[in-house]
Prior knowledge:
The chain is of the alpha+beta class. The chain has helices spanning 19-27, 48-54, and strands spanning 4-9, 12-18, 36-39, 46-47. 18% of the residues lie in helices and 22% in strands.
Amino acid sequence: MKDLVYLSRSFVEFGPFAKKEIIDFQKRGLLAESDYLRDEGSDSWVHYQEWLTVVPMPEPKLVKKPAVKEAEPKAKAPATKKAKKAA
């Protein structure tokens, strides 16, 4: 499976992770300046910022919003009468 990526931080290897997970790590600010990545099957490590410029970004998912029915205007309730004060 070519969609797996390994992460190296302080010479310790973690993974494999899905490419989507690595992109999510970057969005959440979890990647450090010292992090390097390599695709499964590759022997060369690439700085994570360089890897992000090379990896194809997933297309955003389009979410259809359900059609919203316009609410019918509610009939106004009749005003309540205030009791008169005794003089």
